[in-house]
Specification:
Blueprint: E1 2-5, H1 10-18, H2 26-34, E2 37-41, E3 46-48, E4 56-61, E5 64-69, E6 75-81, E7 86-87, H3 89-94, E8 99-103, E9 107-112, H4 114-121, H5 125-151, H6 154-165, E10 167-169, E11 172-175, H7 179-186, H8 190-202, E12 206-209, E13 212-215, H9 218-225
Antiparallel strand pairs: 1-2, 2-9, 3-8, 4-7, 4-9, 5-6, 5-8, 10-11, 11-13, 12-13
């Protein structure tokens, strides 16, 4: 992992404008980015640890998974994040959280200063209200995500995760993920996920690709993920 000062880093500014922070004033943006750092995180490495120091990350590039970690170190994915998304807000607000984040692909992020965020939110009503709204949104998304994992079939859960993980490439929608990672994400085992993927291939919704899995029929996969036939 390497880090440099964010300052007016072009990718930091682009990610900021793509995030919910875009509605904040230029003064808030300047204060938040003045002491931020741009960090590169290799695939498979943590962006921040569960139960560790509070962190707030603005993603420029790559995909990350946010996971909740139990006391016995078991992990379950609660959401995915890509460019222009912010991760770590509950930790930043509460000063600690059982939630961590890992890089699925190589990621570039701006690590924002949590102390600066808390100081500004204590005096700026617009920022404080925005953080409250986003905290609620995270709760809603997490409940929906976990509900799908608890009540959906394996086929539905695998389909949902494939759609969440897909990224645009010249060859189409590509999912760069190992079967074991999918199994961990849905709380299953690799053999079960392998069978689900085989059924999806047989139905023509996905196919093997040199970079991972290519989604051939995103509409059909979405119907399946939503409980349709």
């Amino acid at each position: 992992m390497t880090a440099v000062r964010a300052g007016l880093h072009a990718k930091t500014l682009a990610a900021w404008e793509a995030s919910y922070f875009a509605e904040l004033s230029r003064e808030i943006r300047h204060a938040m980015l003045r002491d931020a750092f741009v960090v590169t995180v290799p695939a498979g490495q943590p962006i921040y640890e569960a139960l560790g120091p509070p962190r707030l990350a603005l993603l420029h590039e790559g995909q990350a998974r946010v996971k909740v970690v139990s006391k016995d170190s078991r992990a379950a994915t609660v959401r995915y994040a890509g460019p222009g998304q912010v991760i770590g807000l509950p930790s930043a607000i509460a000063q600690s959280s059982p939630v961590g984040a890992d890089a699925i692909t190589d990621c570039e992020v701006s690590m924002l200063n949590v102390a600066t965020l808390r100081r500004l939110a204590a005096t700026d009503a617009q920022l404080a209200w925005l953080l409250a709204q986003q905290a609620c949104q995270i709760v809603f998304e997490t409940v929906e995500f976990l509900g799908d994992n608890l009540f959906g079939t394996v086929q539905q859960r695998v389909s949902r995760h494939l759609l969440d993980l897909a990224s645009n490439a010249p060859e189409g929608l590509i999912v760069r993920v190992e079967q074991q990672e999918l199994a961990d994400a849905i709380g299953s085992v690799r053999e079960v996920v392998a069978r689900a993927l085989r059924k999806l291939r047989e139905s023509g919704m996905v196919e093997r690709h040199t970079s991972g899995i290519r989604i051939v029929d995103p509409s059909g996969l979405h119907r399946l993920a939503s409980g349709g036939q």
